[in-house]
Design goal:
Blueprint: E1 3-10, E2 15-21, H1 25-34, E3 37-44, H2 48-51, H3 65-80, H4 85-95, H5 99-113, H6 118-122, H7 131-143, H8 146-203, H9 209-223, H10 225-244, H11 246-257, H12 262-284, H13 288-298, H14 302-316, H15 321-328, H16 333-345, H17 348-368, H18 370-406
Antiparallel strand pairs: 1-2, 1-3
Helix pairs in contact: 3-4, 3-8, 4-5, 7-8, 8-9, 8-12, 8-17, 8-18, 9-18, 11-14, 12-13, 12-17, 13-14, 14-15, 15-16, 16-17
Length: 407
């Protein structure tokens, strides 16, 4: 998340300054105001990932969506029943099994005791409560519909959880096959092929090209495995560092959308998430520009987020949502048509929910047929590996048989 340098005044009139983490400059200003600071200047600084050298953060797992769903459901039930907010938070702390969420709720309880709002307290824990989560809670507090905001959040996270489960189920078979192929190739190169290579060398026959390729590959695995492991580690760190840059992450996210077979599924899943998030924010009363910024961040795709932030800037300059959506060139005609009709009728949130449901059904169907579409590719990979092994092993054996017959 970006870090912003700020200068401002406290409620007592004292001059203050420092850093604040927020996805956008507008949300940084809102966070400062919630803290009792009136910002006079906000400038973008380095990302918090580069300024924070606490290695322990690298080993902290993300909060599972299942935990967030249960938390939203429980807090929704408590607030709807009229239980005081501080008492509800303390009760959830006692029954919480996730250590990260429990620690965050304990801190939230302390902040509530000191007079801070629920959204302001949650904003101090960005690793647990996302900006989207905080904004929804903030709107719920300001409108007196906190229970409805929590219900909408629970439904949103349930949808996200279902989508992730469908993707994991669809990818299980191809991942298993590719893993088995990798393990088989490793065993063949280390254990099997060296035995055949020593046998072929004793007979002194001319080896065909497939056999020479197999033996060279096996020798590399056996004799230079240390270099190979080192190269893999260096490559992994290099790629991770490149993905840590804004340009690298944006190019990678754009590449994911262009992948054959799966790229179209990823794109429709992202459009479904954007439509659902944008509709949820608008329905809850979040301002349009802030809804766009939060919806773009919720995608987890820097390429799409950049285009959506460009849409936000154009809308703030006076353009309509539909015209900026057309200029962004990231939406399908269906989404653009629904946005255009929604602007004219004032029901853009309802129509976007219908778009989200439509794309959810499309993604669900594509995931169910994904195995059938990937199977031919996997069969070609397995057939190519078997053919290379057969030619590499049997061709020299036939040559050895000819030498024996001739002798």
């Amino acid at each position: 998340m970006p870090t912003y340098q700020y200068q401002g005044r406290s409620l007592q009139g004292d001059k203050v300054g420092g850093q604040v983490d927020a996805p956008t400059e507008e949300l940084a200003a809102e966070a400062l105001i919630n803290k009792g600071v009136i910002p006079t200047s906000i400038t973008a600084g380095k990302s918090s990932a580069t300024t924070n050298l606490d290695l322990s953060n690298l080993f902290v797992p993300a909060i599972p969506l299942e935990v967030l769903v249960i938390f939203c459901r429980q807090l929704y039930s408590l607030t709807k029943a009229g239980v005081p907010l501080l008492r509800a938070i303390k009760g959830l702390v006692q029954n919480c099994s996730n250590k990260q969420l429990k620690h965050a709720l304990e801190e939230v309880g302390h902040e509530l005791t000191n007079g801070r709002s629920l959204s302001g307290s949650m904003q101090l824990h960005p690793k647990v409560f996302s900006p989207l989560f905080v904004s929804m809670i903030n709107v719920g507090e300001n409108t007196g519909r906190l229970d409805q905001a929590l219900y909408q959040l629970s439904h949103y996270y349930e949808q996200e959880l279902e989508t992730r489960k469908r993707i994991k189920t669809a990818m299980r078979y191809p991942v298993f096959v590719l893993s088995f192929i990798a393990i088989a190739m490793l065993v063949l190169n280390i254990k099997v092929i060296p035995q055949f290579a020593s046998m072929f060398s004793r007979f002194g026959v001319d080896l065909p090209l497939p056999t020479r390729i197999l033996i060279a590959t096996s020798d590399f695995f056996v004799n230079y495995w240390g270099w190979l492991v080192g190269f893999v580690i260096v490559a992994a760190f290099t790629i991770r560092a490149w993905l840590g840059t804004a340009d690298g992450r944006e190019k990678w996210d754009k590449f994911r959308l262009r992948l054959p077979i799966v790229g179209d599924i990823v794109n429709r899943a992202q459009l479904s998430r954007f439509s659902r998030t944008f509709a949820l924010m608008l329905k809850s009363g979040v301002p349009l520009n802030q809804s766009l910024a939060l919806s773009g961040e919720a995608l987890g795709n820097k390429f799409l987020e950049r285009r959506i932030l460009e849409m936000k800037a154009s809308i703030e300059a006076g353009s309509t949502v539909s015209s900026t959506a057309i200029q962004s060139q990231i939406f399908t005609p269906l989404v653009i048509q629904m946005i255009s009709v929604g602007e004219e009728t004032g029901r853009i949130d309802e129509l976007l929910l219908e778009v989200s449901d439509f794309y959810d059904r499309e993604v669900d169907y594509d995931l169910k047929t994904l195995t059938a579409r990937i199977e031919p590719i996997l069969l070609l990979i397995v057939a190519g590996m078997v053919l290379l092994l057969a030619l590499g092993i049997f061709l020299p054996m036939w040559g050895m048989l000819d030498v024996v017959k001739g002798g």
